[in-house]
Amino acid sequence: MIAMSTRHILLGLLASGPSHGYDLKRRHDERFPQARPLAYGQVYTTLQRLVRDGLAEVDATESDGGPERTTYRATADGERELTQWAAEIAPPAPFVTNEIFAKVVVSILSGGDPDAYLRAQRAAHMGRMRELTQVKTAKGADLATVLSADYALNHLDADLRWMTTTAARLTTLTAEVDTA
Amino acid sequence: MSTTVPLLAARDLVKAHGPTEALRGASLELRAGEILAVTGASGSGKSTLLHCLAGIVRPDEGTVSYAGDKLHTLPEKRLSELRRTDFGVVFQFGQLIPELTALDNVALPLMLAGTARKDAQVRAQEWLERFGVLGQEALRPGEMSGGQAQRTALARALVTGPKVVFADEPTGALDSLASEQVMTALTHTAGEQGTAVLLVTHDAQVAAYADREVRLSDGTVVPQEVAA
Amino acid sequence: MTTSYTPSRTRVTADLRLAWLLTRGSDRREWWRALLTGVGAALATGLGLVIAVLLPMQGRYHLNDTFDLLEEPGTRAGVIVALMLLVLPVLGFLGQCARVGAVHRDRRLAGLRLAGATPGQVRRIAALESGLACLAGSAVATVFSVLTLLRLWSHPGPPAWAGIAVVAVLVPVLGAGVSAFALRHVVASPLGWIRRVRPARGPGRLFRLATGLLVLLALYIATTPVFGNPVGFALGPFTIFAMCLLAGAVAVWLTGASSRQLGEGLAARAGRPEVLIAAERLRADPWAAARTHAAVLLVTVVGSGFMGVRQVLLTDLHTMDQQYYAEGIGFYERGLDLTGAAVLIGLGLVLTALAVGTAESLATRRRGLAAQAAAGVPYRVLGRAMLLETALPLLPALAVAGLGGMTIGIWYASIATENGSAQTLPWTALLVPVVVYAACLLAAATSLPLLRRSLRPAELRYV
Fold this sequence. Notes:
heterotrimer, A: 180 residues, mainly alpha, Arc Repressor Mutant, subunit A, 3-stranded antiparallel sheet, 8 helices, 67% helix, elongated, B: 228 residues, alpha/beta, Rossmann fold
């Protein structure tokens, strides 16, 4: 799951233009400060896998006096894969994940529609919240059910509130991501 | 076929409060027996939309139709009557008369419709029991907890057997437990009576009690994505 | 240590500046309060000044033919009493005006307390606010009164000037003092809860004491003939004044007590929504009605007393003018007309106060009223409830006030009979409460347009 996210995030970072491994790591760490910093090795192996799967390819190899550096770029397949992934809804889970944030940023990087994504994600969250509310208000529901539904509802609500705030600040975020 | 005809429908509503436009072309449909949540940020026009739909406010432009009536063209006298017979309203607070007991507050709409006070009180008592306001009939709104007062307000809104209940932030002043009790009471009773509910709220957990959600932003309805 | 520090002066200046800033930024209705308070203070000052000038006069004076009542010490005393009586509705008017926008003011003062102001500071600021309004009214009245006085009377003596100065200063000082006293509960709580959960308080200790003293005085007057002490006819006007006060005070107690009884009784039995709402509001705060109606009742007592006395006096004059009154009855008629005019002015004042009170009660409840209208409670039900709230408690109170006035008339008639004239029943006294009742309903009805405006859904937006 995490490896899969890293793949797409690297693809997303490549969407703004060819880049080499170390640069990708640095930009990842800057862009997602809450995430665990990527190990250089992990960036390298992930890039290898992307090339193997035909989603990325080597752009150039250069060594101006120092060690050899390889720059990569996303292929057409890679861009398609990225668009598809970014538009995909993350399963509304009662956990604080920053997958939604990652998708928003990647969506901005790849010129997608983060607003539409957030609306769809919101609808999915609301759908799940309605289900949980029905479970909890059903006649004869025991307290354990009510409490666990409440736990999930509160986490989903936190996601939703975050999404609402983010949606309202997309313009500023886009400007920030694009100039970085 | 008749189920597809909405009970209440608003088309392209425009309404300005002085220089600020609260609604800019909002449209919405409410089907019979449906619980619909209208959500949105503060100032997105939620309350104004509710006021237009309930015939409390006349829109500057657009139409509101209810069961074949064009609400925006009806005279105030008829609107007031409609609000008394076919609609019920619940606000955040203020809809109970502070000097009247819970029982008289609930009996009031029936008395206004011409029911004798004794009969009205008997029916009001049944509704208070239904909403779990037991042994509090003689209390006045100031002497009750927020949750009890709101459940009394629900009883007052539903006692005449309305077709639609309009609830504007009904849990706005309540903690989450009281809020849960009020919302459960509202949705269960509305379901049993087949009453449609238009629920205005900024709280997603409250909106989750509805069957459907309509989001407002800057006075218009945000297009809905189909959940995957 | 180079600058001399003057704490008290700095403090007052700072408070004054704050009071001015707060008043300037306040709600529109608070400006109404300031304006009405100023008008009331001007009236009180005007009356006070005339009394202050008349009191030191000894013996006969000749001013002007229009003012021939002021020539004789006896009739002058009567004029003074009439003016003193007229001060009472002015005070009632001032009391009512102090309530305009009171919710806003209380919230503002509570905010000041939350912001760290001491109770003393808040009290001073509040006192300065109303003191300034009273000062403005008093200054205007003083200037005009002195100019008029100098035209009528070329050489007012030092006592008259002293009296003028005392009244001109006393009115604003009293205004400030009374407002500080009235706000003693509000400033105690930074959260300003006082008004919201205000229990229906009965009249205060001062009022109880005043009523007790009046009862003692009445007993003394009633028993004097028995012990053979001569009640001089000159004492008559003062006795009338005291009796009027007593009847007014009793009427206030009666309104309060009967409002509660009436409210409870009607609330249990009411079949119509408007009666139920009005009755429950009376039951919730019966003393609000008593306070609002106190001045109305006083004017009714004075008015019906005056009508009774007038009828008896005129009958007397007509039957015996050939015998005793060579100068004719015109002099007495003019006196009666002037007194009647004073009573009418008093009535006008209390009706204005009643209208202000009704409007203020609506303005305070406008959000709740708008919610009722939104829920489908018709305008006419809310309007009728508002009128009934005035009509119900006034009915028994005005009846008693009318009877009080009638008693004064009969008492006067009995004195006149002792002096050898024919017995007259002062039935005209009974017309006064009926007329006042109708006028009060009209005054309350002036708030109906405000009610209609309060029911606009825009009011739902205010919290």
